[in-house]
Amino acid sequence: ALGEKDVNDCIRILEEMADLAVENGLLRTAARAHNNIGATMDNQVTDLKSCRSHYITAAEIYGSIGDVESILFTMRNIFENYLELGELLAIEDEVAKLLKSAAVPENRIQNFLFEHKPVQLFYQGDWFAALEIYRENLHDLSSTEHIERASDKRWQIAYVLIELDRFGLIDDLSEAEELLTENIQDNLSLFSSNFGLVFVYIHQGKLKKAHDYYEKSLSTVRNPNHKGFQYYLRPWIEYEFASAEKRWDDAIVMCDSIYETYQQGGYVYNSAIWLINLGEALLGRAGPGDQERARQTYQQSLDMFTEMGAPGYIKVLEERLGKL
Length: 324
What we know:
- By secondary structure, the chain is mostly helical.
- It has helices spanning 4-23, 27-43, 48-64, 68-84, 91-101, 106-124, 127-140, 147-166, 174-185, 190-203, 207-218, 227-244, 248-265, 268-285, 290-308, 311-322.
- The radius of gyration is 21 Å and the shape is globular.
């Protein structure tokens, strides 16, 4: 990852570029600069609210020149920011309001919200509802002309199933394994599918197979500094390996580190998720004081998910706290 000074220098240059572009009437250039500032901040997990404000500025500029496609492209990032900020209750109204203010046609607004509904449900912990929509989408995309979009739905279904298995809500990941394997055989959505299969093997207790496949998958990563890999997939997989192998000290160090990164950047949802992981690792280690710290950690996560409005996670955490 870039150092803090490099990131700040990059953002400063882009901000100057955006200001100059506006002064000279180069609005598309200004919008692209704001998009790039948002992407830089997000990829370094620095300041999520500032990141969103730059994306919103870009969308507003695109709105002023009537570029609906660019508004909708930028709105994907804004939607994700709302999710990661944990603003789950406000997201639909706020996104619709932004799109309306940019004069996006109503049917395009509704299509956008419908398309993003399952990921919103996932963040709320409504995993079975998300799964139903993804399965319907996959069924509707069965023709060969939609092969790439169908591959996205396969790995999305698999990741929902992995989450359900993690919380003990299902106990069979054969469907996830089949969907991910199909993608890999078709050479589609390889990044998400390869690492998804590592999760499946860990959950199935096939640890040697998981390690072998993980090493193989690492060699295919094009950008190891990308947020999706550096801050999400890699630490999550390494935490799951540590947990499955009962290396609890390692797991706790990982949880503390990634939680601090997300918490400092304002990533409320991700912070709450890593508190769940930390609670699991503390209970696994079961050293002096670990149970009480796990209870406090779960309670902190529960308070955060309650404020977000995430019923699935609330239920999981209440059940876990009830057993302590």
